[in-house]
Amino acid sequence: MQALYTIYEIIAMLTNVLVMLIIIQFIIGLLFAFNVVNSSNEFLSSFYMAINRLLDPILRPIRNIMPNTGAIDFSPLVLIILLNVVLIVLGGIIYN
């Protein structure tokens, strides 16, 4: 049973890292969109592209399912909600 708790904690930690990456991607995207930071900033631009490459395979299926909302992309929010639902369900299974 202890192994299940350990696996759950590892999944929770990886989920938290993924949520942090989504939030960082969102913030950097806002900084670029409102010209707070110039998009020619090499470090921030390459960091943003690296995060996009990591998250795009996860977000693309969600974007394909969701209706087009124009300039606002709700797929990161949907992913965060889905990840939290999965954690709640797994926690309920393991701790009961």
Automatic annotation (TrEMBL):
The transmembrane segments are: 12-34, 74-95
* Keyword Transmembrane in record: yes
Protein name (record): YggT family protein
Keyword set for this entry?
Membrane, Transmembrane, Transmembrane helix
Entry superkingdom: Bacteria
Q: Which Pfam families match?
A: CCB3_YggT
